[in-house]
Protein 1
Amino acid sequence: MTVPAAVQPLLLALVLAASARVKLTSRTARSRATGTALAAIVGKRRAPLAYGMVGGVEAVVALALLAGGVPVVPQRIGAALAVAASTAFVGYLGYARLFAPDSSCGCVSARQAPIRWRSFARAVLLLAASVVALVAGTPWPAAVARPYLAVGVLVVELAAVALLSPELDERWLFPVRRLVLRVRPHPLAGLAYDLPLASTVRQLERSPAYREVGGRLRSDVLDHWDEGEWRIVCYRTDSAATAVFAVPRLRYDPDSVRVAVVTDPEPVPA
Amino acid sequence: MDAMDRRRLLTSAVLGTAGLATATALGPLSPEPAHASPALPATEPVVEDPNFAEGRITGISGTMLLVTGSDTVLHRIRVTNGTSIWKLYPTTFDAVDVGDGLYARGVRMADGTLAADSLWVNIVSMSVQITAIGNGWLHLDHDNKRIVGRVVPGRTAAVYRDAPTTGDLSKLRVGRHAHIIGAWRPDTNEVDLATVYAGTVAG
């Protein structure tokens, strides 16, 4: 148990350092701080500064955790700071979820990510790691005793953190989903149909016939149907007549669009 | 005259397969009034457009829609057979339900009712990122909110950059940013997709 416990300070230091790096060095991330839940707590104007300060605190905790490797510095100092930081972070997520549900968590990347269960699971994972590190108090260099086990635990835990990071979806989840769609038939492939109405309307709006009467049309598309090689589209005009357009169905030729204006022989009640 | 007869009449009017006394191509449309439609002065954006209304339908009485605006103003909107009604696609008055949201454009009458020329029911227009694609649906992220975009066979269309509108949705990719027009299903996070504009936004 000593080796896995000794790995925890390293895991925490790595995650905190990555998070601090973004907060301290990425101008984009700081400017986006106004969109994070932090802005709801300290105000929009102070959010970028507060965001940077959180990054500073994370860097200090990461350093304290790494300092546990120096024989005279107890590992528990860094671990205790990490417990405090993770607890505060779980509290922050809870607050954000309750009072600023639309905001981004602003956690470990400049990318915006909503606060959902994954953010919570990740925060709880880090809290658990901090508690283990605090209780065991094993300095991290002890992990060298069983290097394969140590690296294995670290890799698994880092992978878990990555899986639970919505900010990293674009790096691994989206490519995986794209790959799946490439390997398997595209789920929407079978749905293609010959001619959406929007396509007809786009052609219609580029036609001389439409330019002629467009200014007199008062309604959107009233009715439409297909008639051989034509699609018929009807609109209401300002003189309460019906403008009937015939648009080529399966070719693009706006010049051949025809129009007729028909006065209703009998008004039909709706 | 039933709907089929009417369609036949209009078809022959525009395609000219039959002579019709009532059909005169461009006849009643003299060019002058085309430019005489009253427009609000563009320099006064604070003026509320009296010929426009938006809100949610709280009641339907005959052909009158009672609509509560998002600013809590109550609108009465009269629908006629000359009113175009969009709800994912051009449809008829029976497709309109209490609880639906709408945008209406028309002419404000002296009694305060809006005689509607056009209704767009539950229409939404938003920028999204496609986060997953499945059998008949897209998961979309809009301002950190997850939207489920329902693909409606024979209705949902896609525009890839400047290419013509197509019914082929198989070029949509996970991670792409897109703009969607669709019909919101009231009180859910689901949208029936009308058009997906893909690749019009960088990313």
Protein 2
Amino acid sequence: MRLRKLCYLAGLIGSLQACIKDAPMNPEADIEKVTFDKSLMTGDVFIDQANGLIMLYLTPEAYEKGIAPQLTLSSGASVMPASGDSIRFNSTEVHQYVVTSADGHNKKTYKVVGVNIGTWKWDFEKWIQNEDYGYQHPIGDEDSATVWSSGNPGIAFSGVGEDPQAYPLRTTTDAYHGKYAAEMVTREGTVLSGWVGIKLFAGSLFLGVFDIEKAFAHPLEATQFGQPYRGEAVRFTGYYKYQPGPKYQNKAGDIVPGMIDSCSVYAVLYTGTTRLDATNIHTSDRIVATAALPEGSAKANWTRFDLPFVMKRKVNYDEKLMMAIVASSSQYGDKYEGAIGSRLVLDSLEIVH
Amino acid sequence: MAALLLTAGQLCAQQNDQKETSFTPHLEHRILAGFNFGATAPVGLPNTIRKINSYWPEFSPSLGYELGYRITPKWGAAIGVKLDYKGMGTKDEVMYFPTIINTKDGGTFSGTFTGKNKTTVRNAYVAFPLSATFTPNSKWRFSLGGYAAWLFSSNFYGHVSDGYIRSGGPTGEKVIIDHATFDFGTDVRKFDVGLQGGALRKVGRKLEVMGNLNWGLRPVFPDEFKGLDFPLYNIYLTLGVAYKI
């Protein structure tokens, strides 16, 4: 009798598994990886998945001769033009890829963008706003190049609303020079960010890219610092203002009495084409020079900084280098510590060659 | 042949007559105690659920009182009041699972999730079952009817892991999720209504064993809740005992 009941039970469980339907066809249409001859790169390719951009950092030779990128796609997806086809940059033609998902329902377009920094000087006069999420980021005053990034794209995923002011990095008219400056304000987390254990978002601004894929699982690797650079660096100069928020909190969100928040502003020059991130920007043996604000206490008025690069060794002219500038309204914001309301304003930054 | 049937029919009728003469309509009181086993689940699994790795019933007691009224020897009606915990846990794996999450602070996430999920459900209701009863003999009683239930405590929480979300849908940007918790407890509907039916079998002078299936007809989440893109229903079997008082 008992045996028979067991058989029934086994049958029932079996029939539950039988309820599992066939797997859906893959609806995804990503370009996951773009690879080509590394000697033609000044910096590693970055695929901006949110905006459908393939950002290339190329040597003059690559611009002359063109490149033949190999594409890695979502499984089963197809792409036009094909992976391995040559791209030449001798016309004003816009290069783009259209990926079709395995199930045929979805198409995703990626535009190929060559990124170059003309002048290493920023007054933060030009900003663009993300259409979907409403956050802002500065672009080059003269060349409109997208070289700055921040934690904003990750914060957009936490549902803070489409108001640029809801994001920790935004433009402000409280400027030292020109009309605008970059304002970073540390803010509280959201209910959604709490689900992944994040209770605070520090304001950040950095030369580099934000890898959204790692934003929650490996946040320190999501902030990829640096843009291709050539030659030596002499000084890092600019103007800032800083006001720490009233209550310092730790990662758990508990107030730490007596702790006062501080800002951080620094520049790092390193070798190679692969960006350093928040796990190794201070420790990598690829670092050749740094220039850092010695202390990040409150500054009510615009304060100039002029920081000489401390060279660890001489650099060769033909060496591939990257320069990172990193600023945050909470020094330990990468550990989700800081004071809500801490405000850092930056203007007129320059890397003096 | 026809005569035989006729005789049999007459015999039957006589028997009935005899019983009916000794039968008077009366009330029956029962205390019901048991445990609920089942699931808060979709009816038919959507293809976004790829694998059920495990399932377990949560501690889900059911305790109540039933008032029955026997109108005829075989037929009657019963109404009850029960404290019903309905709970379960499951671990599963999903693929391109659509979800829209709205949080109290105005935050919203809309997209798909691929990865592992663990969900624990434990909802407590005050339920009022109403049934027609059929008592074919002294051993068995069958009942069929409906129930209305009011929620007084709800838990619907869990975590997702080893996967990724995509904002906006399959072509949105991918974000890896190592571990994220969720809690939809406050979204559970306050009122549930459904069908229920079961059997009692006499095992002692006053004691009966009981099996009763409760099938919710109203999705446990309101239509505006989009955390899951398919409706879940309370489908639970109460196994326990009834004690006549």
